Amino acid sequence: MAATEQASSGCASTAAAAPREALGSAYLLAFGSMVMLQGGNALGLVLIHHLGVPTSTSLRLLFGSIFLVVFLRPPRHLGSAEIRLVLVYGLVVAAMGGLIYEAVDRLPLSVAVTVSLLGPLTVAAASSRRRRDLAWPLLALAGVILLAQASGGEGPSVDAIGLACAAGNAVAWGTYIVLAARAGRQFDGVHGLALACVVAAVLWLPAGIASGGYASLTAPILLLAILTAIIATGLPYTMENLALRRMPQRIFGILMSFEPAVAMLAGLLLLGQKPGILALGGIALVIVASIGASMPAAPAPAPP
Q: HEC profile for the chain?
């Protein structure tokens, strides 16, 4: 009897430890995806200075889609509804890829990412049934206004075109989240995303060739492009998907709220971009608003 009780206790402790281990690995995956993405965006700025935005975007999506297709092996045969979804999804991914590069080319990395976070934040607030959650986008907008007023510091200056590109990326990012949820219901894992990246790469290929950047490719720049694609596209998307399988979506949303802070550190350490007081205040407001929008309406009921 004692042996049975001891065995039962051991099984229970093992079962309890498994979710804790899974949650711990999910935290590491989520944080790693943010570090990878923002580090990749910093490398992308170096690539932009050599090749320009169209070619840099084209190469990132090209090699990123190759990585995802080889690693994830999405299905080859699709129905008509799945094809339509992939085409729209790919168009949105293409818009995100170009707009974020146009933004980081004109803005500090932290500012571009902070403004872009308005998209997911608005989607989270709009999906809530609580009216007070609509205040979070307004708080984030106040933070963006502070960012728009920010001046000084090193790195790219804050200008209107850059802010407009970041705002456009926010719209694309919000749409991306909606389409990602829909694709998750029709495809296994991130297979829909892998196919969408292929569509986005095809859409950007003519612009990349027409801009003349491909003629400037050298072996070191090509290696940098491949590295940027893997770090900024292939790995973070895969790590985010694995993290979402191990943790509740609301916790993942709260963690992703700190992406502007990670972008600020990446810009400071890799690009020498030092944010001013107003920029720090604006980033803080957006992070607080994003955390607030990700909080649950009420604790989930305990299972029977």
A: CHHHHHHHHHHHHHHHHHHHHHHHHHHHHHHHHHHHHHHHHHHHHHHHHHHCHHHHHHHHHHHHHHHHHHHHCCCCCCCHHHHHHHHHHHHHHHHHHHHHHHHHHHCCHHHHHHHHCHHHHHHHHHCCCCHHHHHHHHHHHHHHHHHHHCCCCCCCCCCHHHHHHHHHHHHHHHHHHHHHHHHHHHCCCCHHHHHHHHHHHHHHHHHHHHCCHHHHCCHHHHHHHHHHHHHHHHHHHHHHHHHHCCCCHHHHHHHHCCHHHHHHHHHHHHHCCCCCHHHHHHHHHHHHHHHHHHCCCCCCCCCC
